[in-house]
Description:
The protein contains five helices and 24 strands. By secondary structure, it is mainly beta. The strands form seven sheets. Strands 10, 11, 12, 13, 14 and 15 form a six-stranded antiparallel β-sheet that branches. A five-stranded mixed β-barrel has the order 19-20-22-23-24. Strands 2-9-7-6 form a four-stranded mixed β-sheet. The termini are far apart.
Amino acid sequence: MQPQRMFMLAGAILLAAAGTHAGEIRLRPSAAVGADAPVTLRDIAELRGEDCQYLAGITVAARGRDLLGPENSPHVGAAGVFAEIDLDQAREALRAGGADLARHTLSGRTCVVRVLGLPAIAPGTDHPGEREPDFEIVDPLSPDTAGTIRARVAETIAACIGADTARMQLRFSRRDLPLLSRHESAALEGPVASRVVVQPASAVGERMIVRIRIYDGTRIAESHTVAMDVRTLRPVVVVTQELGRKADLLPAALREEEQWIAPGDDGGEPIGSTAAAIGKQARTRLEVGTILRASHLDEALLIRRGELVTVHCLRGSFEVRLRARARQDGRLGETIPLRAEDADEDFLARVDGPGRAVVIGE
C-alpha cells in the first residue's frame, strides 16, 4: 500500500473513532411521571454531553399509564403505582426514535417509575392485572423490619454510604426476603444461640452487595450473598429552564426539591441548595429536569481575556496597585498571566474577585 493511501486510511479511522461515544445516557434510579403525560427519555435518564441532548424528547411511552404492561413489572400497592424500565427498553426506544446507538454509551440497570394520578390500593386488595413483582422496596424503619436481618443490612449500608436510615430505601429481590425477614434472635432454627455478621462486599453505588454470615458459636452455620438497589432521599437542585454551555445559573432557572437518588454516582455529588449553584456557570448544556451535580458546574469567570484588571502587588506591609491586561480568562483562585500597560513581558497573579488580582512579592 502506498504511503499516501496509508495516511488517508489512518485519517479516516481516526475520524470515525472521534465520532463514537459522543455522549452518555444513564438511566435514573427512579422517576415520576403523570398517568396521562408522555414519557420521554429525559424523564427516565440523565443525558451527559452536548452531542446527545437532542435525544431528550424521544418518546418511551405515549402515556405514563402505558407503562403498566407485564413487560414493565408493574406493582400497585399502598405506596402508589410503580413500573420498571430497563436498559433494553430504553435502547429500543432510542432505536425507534432514530438514534445512532454507536455514538452513545448507555448505562444503568433499571429506572423505577412512579405513575402519578392513579389510585393506590391497600395491601392485600385485589387489583385487575396486578402482577407479583420480582422485587420489594423496603423501608428500613418500618415496624416489621425492626430486629430482622434486613435491619442489620440497612444499618451496614447506611454506615457504608454515610446516610441516615430514615432517608434510605433498599430494593431487594423477593427470593432473598425469607432470609432477610428472619429475626436475629432466631436466625438459626431451634434453640441454638446464633450471631449474625453483615459485611459490605462491593463499592458504593446504585447496586450494592453484602455478605451475611450466621454463626453457631464459633462455627459458620450459614453464609449468604445478597444484592440490593440503594437509594437515599437527598435535597437536590433541578434545572427548570434549558441552559446552554457557559450560561450563568440564575434563581429563575433552578428549583430545590428532594429526590431518591443512588449514592456514589460518578457524576459527582448532587448540589444540595440553589445558594451553592447561583453565580456559577454551566460546564455543559443542561436540559430541563437535570439534577445538578458538581461535575455540571464551573466557577463564574471573574476576569475575561483582554480585560483591564486592577492588580494588588503586596510585599511585606507595602501595597502597590497597577493596571494590567488579562492574557486569559480567570476564575476565583486561579493564577493567570497578565501584562502591565507598556510592558513587554507577562507576570502571574491570582484572581481575587471581579476585575481584581493579587500578586505577592518575596
